[in-house]
Structure formats: structure tokens, C-alpha cells
Amino acid sequence: MALGLFLAAGCAGADVPTVVLNEIESNGGTPGDWIELYNAGPLPADLSGWKMKDGDDSHAFYVFPPQTVIRAGGYLVVEEAQFLFGLDANDSVRLFDSSNTLVDSFRWTAHAASAFCRCPDSTGAFVETVSTKGTANACGQATFLPWPGGGEVQTIGQADFF
């Protein structure tokens, strides 16, 4: 029996797996681009027939083979050599279940210095941080980039006006 993902419209509180995109390496990974999924649910998640696409529907897409299972609390890394499309600087990753329903997605407009990771794992927002391929994300080690603007301060509205 294949286990599916229930979103907000599904069975709230039921013991069903919850699979999400958890980490994405879109530039300079080893051995290339890769995508990490995480199963935050209490049961194994069967991804047989699920699909993964980038931001361009004209590109090929990856179909998870039969008996692709992520254990409860487990990670699954899919390498670029498997999914057969590269991830560009301005791109996205979209995950669809076996009924072609969008399960999760993430879009970016420039490559991360290292990787895009959910902080905390499975539930947080994506941030740039060090790569932790196949393991828990290093959420306390975010990469901060310098402010691109100048040092001057400019008032753009009236004081005490809301």
C-alpha cells in the first residue's frame, strides 16, 4: 500500500507521512546538483510514482521508481545524475505526489553560496547555510552576506506616522 501526503485539506492529526523538500544544492555540489527530501511523519513514506520538476515545464522531470521509501524521520538525496536536469541560478524545485498534486516547492533567484536549507528541518523557511547532505541541517550556521547598499541613512516617511 502506498502512503500519500495529506495537506491542510486532508486528515488533520492522522498518522500519515509528511514529505518535504529540505535542502537544495543548485551550484557546485558533489558530484553536482542535488535535492534532499525529508519525511517528518511517523510512518515510512512510499514515493513510488511521485515526480520532481525544476521551474521549466518543457524540461524532463524525475519520476521516483517503485519502492522508493523514506523511513520516518529519514532523508533521501536525489543526485543530478538521477534527475537528469540541472538547477539554474534562477530556478525552482517542485515535488508532486503520484496523483500529480503539488506537495512542496521552493524558488530562488540566485545560487546559494553553499546550499538552501529549511531551518529548522522540515518546517522552517529556506535559508542559505552550509551543506549537510543527507543529515540534519546546520541551522545555527547561516551564511550572512554583506549589506549591498551604502552606509548612509535616509528617512523615507514621516516620523510617528502609521
Which structural traits does this protein have?
single chain, 162 residues, 5-stranded antiparallel beta sheet, 1 helix
Précis, in short:
With 162 residues, the chain is mostly beta strands.
Write the layout of secondary structure elements.
Layout lengths: L18 E7 L8 E6 L5 E2 L4 E3 L8 E2 L5 E2 L4 E5 H4 L7 E6 L5 E7 L6 E5 L5 E5 L33
Antiparallel strand pairs: 1-2, 1-10, 2-7, 3-6, 4-5, 4-8, 8-9, 10-11
Would you give an account of this structure?
The protein is mostly beta strands and 162 residues long. It contains one helix and eleven strands. The strands form three sheets. The chain has a five-stranded antiparallel sheet. The protein has a four-stranded antiparallel sheet with strand order 5-4-8-9, with no helix packed on it. A hairpin with a 5-residue loop joins strand 10 (115-119) and strand 11 (125-129). It is globular and about 60 Å long. Residues 1-16 have low confidence and may be disordered.
Note the overall shape.
globular
Alpha-beta classification: mainly beta
Helical element count? 1
Side-by-side strand order of the widest sheet: 7-2-1-10-11
Query: How many DSSP E strands?
Result: 11
Element order, helices and strands?
EEEEEEEHEEEE
Low-confidence stretches: 1-16
